[in-house]
């Protein structure tokens, strides 16, 4: 707001308002309501200058319009141009016509001035936003909804540049050219007023001298009224600017006059004309001095606007005996000849007033009555110029009617030269209009050039993008060799990168495949390890329990029997005690190997149940042969020579076996089966070990 209190003024109220630039920045970066608040503050500064609260409406609306347009991703300059075209201009028009009483001829200027102002501060704000990246941190408040095309961005940037450059240069050029014209105008008018004043003054002085000289002549050489008449008549012929001349005797009776015919016709009717009450008679006759009256309407000899010049003349050389007075009535309308010499400009008028501000002469077109008062008001309205502006017809109007200059004569009279204001405004308007046209043409060119420019860049880029978005067909490059160097270099670098990437990818795929295979192997191994007993390599108890369910299901479907066997090495403690733990371990391994050769069907599960105890789950068991098979194993084991790894001593072990053979539907829980097998094992141990006890449960 503070900034806005000091608007930079161009000719005739063209104001460049920095506050409005801030408003546009707020609209673009922060949105409509921030912009509205900024506009309110900025308008307060403007209002002090314009003295009109309506600026709140204009600029508040403009701020909201720009803010909402920004939310729709419309560039500020385009939005502002649209605002002034659709809302601003009609609003200023109505405001000017309804509230400011501005004549229609001035509206073009006022409206285009506002539009130009709008475009300038919007362009300036947009460029500031582009140029000061620090402002972008505010940008989060209003996000771009869509990505903009490069051509649109380029066009906008160029448009901003062109608008700002052109408008600024046009305004500055117009400003200086108008300033210069004003200086010249002022100079011309000053010269003219001095010229006219000098001419008028000379005219009066000449005629004053004529009266004075004639009075002297009458003193010296004329004694009779006849002689007076002759002098008067010849004098009048030489100085026709006197509308009439007369000589009055000491009794104030007119004795001579020119034109004589008038005197004679008056005398016929009235006998004589007495002028003792006339100021010029009193001043010259009684006060013995040369006298020039104020302007007045004549009487007696006519009623023209005149000034009377009078001087006394005497009968004797000592000037003791007064013979009468001589008077000449200077016709004020004769000043028009002075005006006529000033006819170099048709829109110029002259007004000459006396010391009482009565119009002595006014150019015809002003239509002033002679001797009426010259009233005028100095215009301090909305138009600012380096010239003095006045209104004389419509004194309340804010629109100035005339540019004026004046000069005071020695006798207290003043000459005014008035020049119509509207041609000057018209000139400013024409200059502004031509700036507009120039702007329009430049914008069309800008659109064309920026589209071409962006095509130069976007087409090769698009081609590069296409090249890389399609699957590699192994075909040669389709990029135009004439594309810009940077784009072609980008393309080449991308091709190299892509090749490197593909090679790297293949290498990576191979590595991944190898690693996956290794991992799979390790995984299998791990799974095995999890399920295997590390000492014997047999499945462990957990695996057997887990697998039991699957085997049970399988046998249930085929209604087959399952045998669950528990085997416990006999007196194993002694093995450890006699041959050592390593021998015990070796024994366990040998028993396991033998078990695996005896129970080798894929479907059989041979597991170490714990310590020197083993578990067999044998599905699809033949109840008739199972006991025999178990005993076969038991006997084979009892024959097996086991060698202690330490001292190489050989020894043998036996095994006790408890088992159960039953149909799969016997029980779903392995514990139940094991319980029976364990009981049988217990029995086998009880009965002296190295034997098999089996329960065959049939339906
Ligand atoms: N070397 C070795 N010994 C084990 C292992 N697991 C268990 N043992 C031993 O096996 C022996 C089992 O002894 P007991 O439970 O008393 O049974 P036993 O000596 O076999 O007697 P019965 O079962 O009654 O015939 C204990 O001494 C355990 O230390 C093993 O992995 N390695």
Summary keywords:
single chain; 699 residues; alpha+beta; Arp2/3 complex 21 kDa subunit ARPC3; Beta-Lactamase; 4 domains; six-stranded antiparallel sheet; rod-shaped; disordered N terminus; binds guanosine-5'-triphosphate; EC 2.7.7.65; Diguanylate_Cyclase; membrane; diguanylate cyclase activity
What CATH architecture of the largest domain would you give? 2-Layer Sandwich
Uncertain regions spanning at least 5 consecutive residues: 1-16
DSSP strand tally: 22
CATH superfamily of the largest domain: PAS domain
Average pLDDT metric: 84
- CATH fold field value of the largest domain: Beta-Lactamase
Task: Tell the overall outline.
Answer: rod-shaped
Rg over CA atoms, rounded to whole Å, is: 63 Å
**Share of β-strand residues:** 15-25%
CATH class of the largest domain: Alpha Beta
- What structural category characterises the helix and strand content? alpha+beta
User: Which ligands occur here?
Assistant: guanosine-5'-triphosphate
| Number of helical regions | 17
**Main beta sheet:** 6 strands, antiparallel
Helical percentage: 40-55%
What's the N-to-C terminus distance?
Answer: 106 Å
Number of domains: 4
